[in-house]
Amino acid sequence: MKDVEYDSAMDMLRDKNRSMEELSLKKLEDQVIVITGASSGIGLVTARMAAKKGAKVVAAARNEDALQELVKELKNEGHEAIWVAADVGVEEDVQKIADAAIKAFGGFDTWVNNAGISIFGKTTEVSIKDMRRMFDTVFWGVVYGSRTAVDHYMDRRVPGAVINVGSFFGDRGAVVQSTYSSAKFAVHGWTESLRMELEKENAPVSVTLIHPGRIDTPYNEHARSYLDKQPTHIGMIYAPETVAEAILYTAEHPKRDMFVGGQAKFLALLGRLAPRFTDKFMEKTLYRTQHDDRPSNPPEASALYKAGYGLHERGTNKGWIRETSYYVKATKHPVLTSAIAAGIGASLWAALRKK
């Protein structure tokens, strides 16, 4: 009887041609959320923030010791959480994450594809072996996670969210990080294609792409470096909490894209409107703002082929760290933001008329 009712409801939805934004997702306090790359940086901050908001957390990463400490910490604070040691570049490991969530909590409601690693080096110098390995994590890990989550939501017939963490380098090519940029371009293309196909089918899945700018995490310390000097963010950097805020917002509210920081949105727009100018701008600025004066970490210190050190939210970057992204705040409250902007515009117009 339930199958008949479900099929009838699905037929009505197909006739309606519902948009993704019309899906009703659970409140975070009622959710089970899977987070990959949860042992450090954005994933670690998101796991802690999600738990504090009442969600049950499934923390996945390669660093087993860090995951155990994280889950112990969350449980001591009265939250429900489990850990799964997994390499997202291995399809069987990704399925293991889903199986663990189902066994512990009966399923999951949001899957965050966050795990990532970068390579700093010229396009003509990075080895093909290293490129392939990085794509396993950054691109194929997203593919495996997305498909696993979609299968789960389709089987249980309750709406859920897939949240893929992209990059502003996925909207625009970058010098020195060509492999990472290429993998993130692939993530963006995959996410858009997946979203359109699911929406066409009226599938109960919200698909969101997060576009972070430069974030203060151990990202550079974990990277494989071909440079003489240590990779580092120099300039304006955003706190990882700003990305976590965007992730958790879209876990409750279906949204196509979330840009973290005006920096990310500006570069995406500039690249589309003035591509040749953007080429020159990035050639001029990126070489000197992606490393500092320290000697680069040796290849064996990177987390490309093994787990990096865990339980660090922030990195060793140099610059102006913004703890809040007003672009994220504005995206979360578009009506209020529009009203404020309109009020400011009206006030300026009135002042100009008086003059």
UniProtKB/TrEMBL annotation:
<dbReference type="InterPro" id="IPR002347">
    <property type="entry name" value="SDR_fam"/>
</dbReference>
<keyword id="KW-0560">Oxidoreductase</keyword>
<dbReference type="InterPro" id="IPR036291">
    <property type="entry name" value="NAD(P)-bd_dom_sf"/>
</dbReference>
<comment type="similarity">
    <text>Belongs to the short-chain dehydrogenases/reductases (SDR) family.</text>
</comment>
<dbReference type="InterPro" id="IPR020904">
    <property type="entry name" value="Sc_DH/Rdtase_CS"/>
</dbReference>
<dbReference type="GO" id="GO:0016491">
    <property type="term" value="F:oxidoreductase activity"/>
</dbReference>
<protein>
    <submittedName>
        <fullName>Oxidoreductase</fullName>
    </submittedName>
</protein>
<dbReference type="Pfam" id="PF00106">
    <property type="entry name" value="adh_short"/>
</dbReference>
